[in-house]
């Protein structure tokens, strides 16, 4: 397992640089109104359909949720893109003995209310048009190891073009409760309800 070697000034610079890149690539990035719980770390569970997803998580952590970003990445991806290690990237390797260590490491980070950990619970790239979100069992193990107050938030990013040549990203955020207070099966059910709400809201999005 590769632990994060987060450097604050590098992370802050990267957040500003990526906002510049996102403004170039997207017509607009719209974050729906959301207030995080004060005094809680955040486990940010995100739908995963593109390479932009980690950057959306970074954008949310720095500019909207005001937490220090950490992000769980596939081991081979982090090895190839080692610079992300300095921005809060740490590794997980599915099916390996080190996977439990990675989940416990993520839980440890979430004991600090200043931190936010981005995880893609689908475990693979899935179209953002999918109507159901599958959640890997490892999320349950991660949550059970969190000792401090931690808010679980589902982030659903949906892409539309409307009248522009560039895509617009719409980020829908949902409070899924406090870690340890919601059984895993109920969490999965709630995330899928939230996902359906995001899809329905997107159809009626003003532009």
TrEMBL record:
Q: Which GO terms describe its molecular function?
A: acyltransferase activity
Q: Which Pfam families match?
A: Acyltransferase
**Signal peptide start and end residues:** none
Q: What is this protein called?
A: Phospholipid/glycerol acyltransferase domain-containing protein
CDD domains xrefs = LPLAT
Enumerate the InterPro entries for this protein: Plipid/glycerol_acylTrfase
> What organism is listed for this UniProt entry?
Mucilaginibacter ginsenosidivorans
Indicate the transmembrane segments per the record.
none
**Where do the Phospholipid/glycerol acyltransferase domain residues begin and end?**
42-158
């Amino acid at each position: 397992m590769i632990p994060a070697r987060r450097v604050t000034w590098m992370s802050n610079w990267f957040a500003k640089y990526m906002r510049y890149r996102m403004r170039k690539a997207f017509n607009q990035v719209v974050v729906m109104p959301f207030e995080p719980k004060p005094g809680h770390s955040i486990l940010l569970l995100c739908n995963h359909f593109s390479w932009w997803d980690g950057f959306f998580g970074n954008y949310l952590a720095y500019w909207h949720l005001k937490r220090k970003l950490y992000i769980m990445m596939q081991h081979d991806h982090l090895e190839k893109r080692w610079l992300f290690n300095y921005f809060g990237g740490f590794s997980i390797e599915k099916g390996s003995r080190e996977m439990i260590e990675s989940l416990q490491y993520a839980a440890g980070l979430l004991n600090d209310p200043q931190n936010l950990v981005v995880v893609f619970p689908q475990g693979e790239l899935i179209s953002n048009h999918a109507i159901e979100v599958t959640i890997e069992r490892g999320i349950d193990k991660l949550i059970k190891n969190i000792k401090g107050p931690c808010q679980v938030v589902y982030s659903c990013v949906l892409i539309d073009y409307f009248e522009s040549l560039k895509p617009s990203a719409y980020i829908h955020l949902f409070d899924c409760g406090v870690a340890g207070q919601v059984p895993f099966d109920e969490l999965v059910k709630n995330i899928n309800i939230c996902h359906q709400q995001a899809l329905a809201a997107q159809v009626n999005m003003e532009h």
